[in-house]
Amino acid sequence: MLEFAAKSNLWVWKEALKLKQKFEKNPPKKGFVLFETGYGPSGLPHIGTFGEVFRTTMVRQAFEKISDIPTKLICFSDDMDGLRKVPENLPNKEMLEANLGKPLTAIPDPFGTAESFGAHMNGRLKNFLDKFGFDYEFMSATEQYKSGAFDKTLLIALKKYDDIMKIMLPTLGEERQKTYSPFLPISPKTGRVLYVPMKSVNSDKGTITYISDEDGQEYELPVGGGNCKMQWKPDFGMRWAALEVDFEMYGKDHLVNEKIYSAICKTLGGTIPEQFNFELFLDEKGEKISKSKGNGISIEQWLEYGTQESLALFMFNSPQKAKKLHFDVIPQHIDDYIKFSENAQKETEDKLIDNPFWHINNGEIENLNLPVSFALLVNLASACNPDNKDILWSFITRYADGVTKEKSPYLDKLAELAVKYYYDFVKPTKQYHTPNEAEKKAVLDVRAKIETLPDSLTADEIQTQIFEIGKQNGYEQNLRDWFSLLYKVLLGQASGPRMGSFIKLYGIKETIALINEKLG
Question: Dihedral of CA 344/348/352/354: which sign?
Answer without folding.
Answer: negative
